[in-house]
Amino acid sequence: VQLVESGGGLVQPGGSLRLSCIASGFTFSDNWMHWVRQAPGKGLEWVSTIRTGNGGTNSADSVKGRFTISRDNAKNMLYLQMNSLKSEDTALYYCDLRQKYWGQGTQVTVSS
């Protein structure tokens, strides 16, 4: 299994970023996928999940209405569109498979 996240960066409050994760080594389309994050000094926090099949989604209350998770099974890609970013969204973001596999993460810093 390999997961490689990208797309993080420094953004001002209220700004947007789109995170990507390219997956390999497993049948991507057969698996629920997740985004999780870890803020400085804190544990892992679940952010969003996208299911197989109809691709239904769930998100944490803290990001609901601002973040959108999506997937492209043809490309083995997972995405997280993040809008209206807040300082409390600052964290290292990981794509997650089965709460067992993660990539190296991509840093998102929201600051003016």
Straight-line N-to-C gap: 37 Å
Shape, per Cα inertia axes: globular
What's the pLDDT, averaged over the residues? Answer: 97
CA-atom Rg in angstroms: 13 Å
- H/E topology pattern: EEEEEEEEEEE
Number of strand segments: 11
The helix content, as a percent range, equals under 10%
Which descriptors apply to this entry?
mainly beta; seven-stranded mixed beta sheet; 0% helix; 112 residues; four-stranded antiparallel beta sheet
Concise account of the structure shown:
The protein has strands spanning about 1-5, 10, 15-25, 35-40, 45-50, 55-60, 65-70, 75-80, 90-95, 100, 105-110. It has about 110 residues and is mainly β. Strand 4 and strand 5 (about 45-50) form a beta hairpin.
Can you characterise this structure?
This protein is mainly beta and 112 residues long. It is 0% helix and 52% strand. It has no helices and eleven strands. Strands 2, 4, 5, 6, 9, 10 and 11 form a seven-stranded mixed β-sheet that branches. It has a four-stranded antiparallel β-sheet with strand order 1-3-8-7, with no helix packed on it. Strand 5 (44-50) and strand 6 form a beta hairpin. It is globular.
Topology, please?
Layout: E1 2-6, E2 9-11, E3 17-24, E4 33-38, E5 44-50, E6 57-59, E7 67-72, E8 77-82, E9 91-97, E10 101-102, E11 106-110
